[in-house]
Amino acid sequence: MPSWSHTAVHPRKPRADAVLSLIGNTPLVPLYFEAEDATILAKCEFLNPSGSVKDRLAKHVIVDAEQRGLLKPDSIILECSSGNTGIALSMIGATMGYRVTILMSASASEERRKLIRQLGADLILFDSSGRYQTGIEMSREMAAKDLRYFLPRQFENPRNVEDHEHGTGLEILRQVGKPIDAFIHGFGTGGTLAGCGKAIKRRWPEAKIYAMEPAEQALLAGECPCCHFIEGVADGFIPPLLRDAPIDGHIEVKSIEAMTMTRRLHREFGLLVGTSSGANIVAALQTAAKLGPKATIVTLLCDRAERYFSTALFDLTGSEHRA
Ligand SMILES: Cc1ncc(COP(=O)(O)O)c(C=O)c1O
Description:
The protein is of the alpha/beta class. The protein has nine helices and ten strands. Residues 52-54, 84, 185-193, 232-233, 274, 276, 302-303 line the site of pyridoxal-5'-phosphate.
């Protein structure tokens, strides 16, 4: 019998409940944009304990794997991540007592690397020129050689979608409490967009589900992978989890527009969020311009600004005064 298939479920360390209880049930706030005369309902995923929407996936996949007996005390959680999933899994590993190894593109920001190491996980950087597939293939090879590795497989694991469908999506429906006209979100693995889209469509079939894409890499529009500055989304391929997602269309946002809007969120709203949150808001405001000021439009603020200190987002931080 392979060492994976044992059925003994070992008890989770009670200390894990503290962090696990903080994941999800994030607030949804209305943001009124005066110049555009539009209100966007923004779900504050950056308030999850490790600072991003990815805490949900990390919690769901690891708790589920533990309950199904797929994790043993000596298991090592191994995942390829552009940062946020890596940080989230490192946090879950720290609190639940599992070793974690993260494969991350060498181009990911320094802050992400530091957080992963600070949480006690091992980090392996891979050359970003081969894009994400390099890391995914590396993780498969490592797992084939060492059975201690457990792969959450965020890019293909249906539990990723499931969790957003029954978690994030239902939270949105409950918090909005009336028909939703449009839901807009970017995609990395596609789990959030597919899961929330399914939940919203089931309740409000008329709702439009739009994928936000970096204009420099509009894959759904049939363009080729190219560089963009909206970290966390568009990893160079259309993820398999988007295959049966109920998507009505896509909205392209330029990296510069995303960064400008993110700074607006910092300065006009005091919301310290990352670039993809700004991109989501740009796309949501474009939708509001089409659907009118009364439309109910929902999007997500995905992660925190602290993750971008060393990136272009903080290059133009404006006036500093010295006495
Ligand atoms: C920073 C960040 N993390 C995660 C996600 C969502 O990722 P996924 O498609 O993997 O659910 C997004 C999507 O916009 C994002 O911007």
